[in-house]
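Risk register update: the risk of archive-format incompatibility is retired. Evidence:
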Amino acid sequence: MNPENPGLVCRPQRSLYGLKQDSRQWYVRLYSFLISHGYKQCASCYYLFLKHQHNSITTFLVYVDDIDLSGNNFTEILNITHLLDNAFKLKDLGDLSFFLGFEVARTSTGINLC
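Archived output:
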């Protein structure tokens, strides 16, 4: 909001976070990339992509510029991570510890969300 004129909204001169592309265009590019590599967009959650192969599943969750990639096929995870890095120059932050305000804690009995 514009404090001088409360009814007006400011238009940014450049993209937020210094992105070279508009965020919508980035998402379209990411969407096309995932679809071309066998992922399907979830009908009820448009930022969740799934890939089923034989007895394995890989999930790809996107929120703004954060990505959570998980599944039971480690080879697929390494493959898609490598392809994503080549296409988008990703920064791998390692095991998930926080996502969307949730703390992710790993124990010997499973994963807990706090």
